[in-house]
Amino acid sequence: xxxxxxxxxxxxxxxxxxxxxxxxxxxxxxxxxxxxxxxxxxxxxxxxxxxxxxxxxxxxxxxxxxxxxxxxxxxxxxxxxxxxxxxxxxxxxxxxxxxxxxxxxxxxxxxxxxxxxxxxxxxxxxxxxxxxxxxxxxxxxxxxxxxxxxxxxxxxxxxxxxxxxxxxxxxxxxxxxxxxxxxxxxxxxxxxxxxxxxxxxxxxxxxxxxxxxxxxxxxxxxxxxxxxxxxxxxxxxxxxxxxxxxxxxxxxxxxxxxxxxxxxxxxxxxxxxxxxxxxxxxxxxxxxxxxxxxxxxxxxxxxxxxxxxxxxxxxxxxxxxxxxxxxxxxxxxxxxxxxxxxxxxxxxxxxxxxxxxxxxxxxxxxxxxxxxxxxxxxxxxxxxxxxxxxxxxxxxxxxxxxxxxxxxxxxxxxxxxxxxxxxxxxxxxxxxxxxxxxxxxxxxxxxxxxxxxxxxxxxxxxxxxxxxxxxxxxxxxxxxxxxxxxxxxxxxxxxxxxxxxxxx
Amino acid sequence: xxxxxxxxxxxxxxxxxxxxxxxxxxxxxxxxxxxxxxxxxxxxxxxxxxxxxxxxxxxxxxxxxxxxxxxx
Lengths: 504, 72
Known about the structure:
The complex is a heterodimer. Chain A is α/β, with parallel strands linked by helices. Chain A has helices spanning 6-18, 151-156, 175-185, 202-214, 232-250, 263-276, 290-298, 329-337, 346-350, 373-378, 382-396, 404-419, 430-441, 453-467, 469-478, 483-503, and strands at residues 25-36, 39-44, 52-56, 61-67, 71-76, 88-95, 97-100, 108-109, 125-128, 166-169, 192-200, 221-227, 255-261, 312-320, 340-344, 363-364.
C-alpha cells in the first residue's frame, strides 16, 4: 500500500480496480416452512453441512442440525420473533466459529464470540466450535500437577494438567466454589483459565466475575456465558465454544484450565433442542447421542506431546445431582468419561465440613503421577488414616471406652478433618499445604484440640512464612521437598508448637 | 415448468429483458416461465431467482465485491 503521494494512491487504486474480475454471485437459498420455539424448518437449501451457519433475513443466524433430502432443520442462535414462514435462508459455507487468542483474556463473551462486557473484540484467528479430539499419538501422559489450592484435593485427589476431573454434588454444596478457587490459584502461574457458564442465572455469573476481578484473576481468565435466558442452541454451543478457545491457547503451547458449569444444564438444553427437532427421545427423554454430546467435548482435553506444542487443556466439568444420586443417567455418563471425580456431599456441607469432599467416593485416576514430589512426601497415608478414622468414629458415637491407640487415632482423624476445612476464596499455595501436612504427619498437631486446628493452622502458616522464606522459595520453584528443607520446616513447626503451648 | 424471477432496474428495456430470458433458455433445457420484477435500488445488471438458487449479476453486488477486494 503506497504511503507517499495522492498520485501513487490513485494509481494503486486504479491498478486494483483494473485487476478486479467481474463474476456472478450465486448461492442457493431455502424458505422457512415452519418456525417456533427457536427451531426452524427450511424447505430447499440442499447441500448444507452439519453445523453450518445459516443466515436468515434481518441478519439472524441459525445452525443446521438436521439435514434431510428436501430441507434442513435448524436452531436459531438468537431469540427472535422476526423469523416467519416464507423467509429466505442462505447457507454461509462455514460452520460456527469463535475467536481465539490473547484478545480473549479478561473478556466476557457469548458462545459465538460476541463480547458481553461492552467493549469491542478484535481477534485475528477463528476456530470452529466442533473439532476432532487430538490423536492418541499426539498426546503424552499426564505428569504435571495442577494445583487447586484446596488441601483435601491436592493431597488426596490430585489433578494434573490435561486431566478431566469431574466435580459432582447436589445443589449448593460448593461445586462452583472449588472451580473458582482453582482459577484463583492459577495466579502467578502460566495457566490460562476459561470459565464456561451454561444456563446459569445472570446474577450468579456476575458474582463470579466480580470475585475473579477482585482477586486479579480476570487478567488470565475468559468467561463464556450462556445464561438461563439464552436460547437452548446458545447453551448447547457454550462448552464447545469454550473448548475451541482453549484449543487456541493450547496450540501456542500453553496450559489451559476450562471449567464447564454445568454439564447437567447443558444436557437439558440439548434435550430441549432435540425434542423440538422431533428427534426420538430415549432414557429420561434425552436423545440417543447424549453420551456422545459430552464424550466428544471432554476428549478434546488433552496433554500434548512436545512435538505438538506441549500445551494442555485441563477440564473441570461440573454435574449437579439430585438427592446425592450419582447413579442417574447423566452423572454416570460423565463419570465414565472423566479421569476421576470430586464428590461433594450435602451432609458434610451442612455439618460444617467445607469443602464438603467425600474422600471415600472421590478419586483421581491419574493419581500420584500428577502430584509434586513435595506433596507426595507428606501426603502418603492420608486416605487410609481418614478411612480408619471414619470406621472408628462410628464406635465412638456409642460412647464405648476405647484404648489409648484408638483414642489417638480418633483425635488425629478429627484433627485432619478440621485441617481440611478451608474458607471460600482462600486457596493454599503448595508451600502452605506442605507445611500443614508436614505438621500433621510428624504429630505436631496432636497437642492441640481438634476444634482449634483451623485457628492453629492459620497461626502456624504466618509463623512459617516469616521464618522459612528460603525453604518456601525453593519448594515453590522446584516442587520438591529436600531433606534440609524438611528439617528446617520441622524445626520451625516444633518452635511454633512450643510457643503456642507455653502461651496456653 | 421452471419459474425464473428476474429483478431489474425499472429503466431496463423490454428488449434487454428478452435477451436475458433467451440466455437462460440456452442454459436450461426444460420449459421456463419468466417473471419480471423491478427494484428501484438497483443500479444495473439483474438478479435471477431460479427456484432456490440466486444468480446475482447486479452492479450493486459487484460494487460490494470490489469494496471488499480493495479493503483487503
